[in-house]
Amino acid sequence: MPGELAGRHVVITGGDGALGQSVVATFLAAGAECHLPVFGDAPTHAVAGTHVTGKIDLTNQDTVVDYYAGLPPLFASVHLAGGFKAKPIAETSRADLEQQLALNLLTAFLCCREAVKAMRQSGGGRIVNVAARVVEQPAPELVAYTIAKAGVAALTRALAVEVRGEGILVNAVLPSIIDTPANRAAMPNAKVERWPKPEQLARAILWLASPGNQLTWGALVPVYGNG
Question: Which of 70, 118, 165, 211 could hold 74 in an S-S bridge, CB 3.0 to 4.6 Å?
Fold first, then answer.
């Protein structure tokens, strides 16, 4: 709802991606001050309410520590950053697996850890991770990706139990294929009307990250669309 995050500071990783742009717009509409760590250069002109920091490698521990330490009192941290690779297992190398673990699990772990430290100082908060439908419903040729996202799901549940008594609620969403231009181009014959839209996912993430969520923690929320 408009204003429900007014004056509250929120980190959104992956905020420059297709899903991330919808999430940022949704959180801005709710009044949040959005802090966006991006891997590339920060834009010279930012939208009001956004604070973009460039050259942030979320797989680098020291970089993540320094980034969160420099933030204002934090209410929510939303972790959209990740990567995807599809390969049959016989063609999946150790490097492929390590890349998926780094992009998906390591980034979420480091951001969760530093967010918890920040939220302990500010008296509580909300953390939302992004796992994937394959965690619950595996698909072929996605072993490395599935392992990494399963790690994100396990991280979410374990951390939720650890911090639930501190006013920090940790949850994750499990999207299926998201309706983005890149996915449409990669799968031109797919029934895209069944895919969840970025703005729909953004609203689900907003609720989990909002002060209105008082009870839900440790949940892996399916946001599959109609497919």
Answer: 118
DSSP-assigned beta bridge partners for residue 222: 174
Dihedral sign from CA coordinates of 40, 175, 150, 208? positive
3-state secondary structure of 220: strand
Which two three-digit tokens encode residue 33? 């001050």
Tell me, what amino acid is at 86?
A: A
The predicted model scores a pTM of 0.95
Domain count, the chain: 1
Token readout for 219 is: 């949940």
In a domain, 2, yes or no: no
List, edge to edge, every strand of the sheet that includes 33-37: 50-53, 33-37, 9-13, 74-79, 125-130, 168-175, 220-223
The answer to the question of residue 214 being in a domain is yes
**What confidence score (pLDDT) does residue 1 get?**
60
36 neighbors 52 (Cβ within 8 angstroms): yes
Q: Which residues contact 3 (CB under 8 A, 6 or more apart)?
A: 30, 31
Contact 202, 26 (CB under 8 A): yes
Rounded to a whole number of angstroms, the distance between the first and last alpha carbons of the chain is: 28
Looking at the predicted structure, is the pLDDT value of residue 211 above 70? yes
> Using one digit for the tens of pLDDT, what is the confidence trace for 96-115?
999 999 999 999 999 999 99
- Structure letter (DSSP) for residue 3: T
188/179 Cα distance (integer angstroms): 12
Q: Is 56 among the domain residues? A: yes
At 137, which CATH number? 3.40.50.720
pLDDT of residue 29: 96
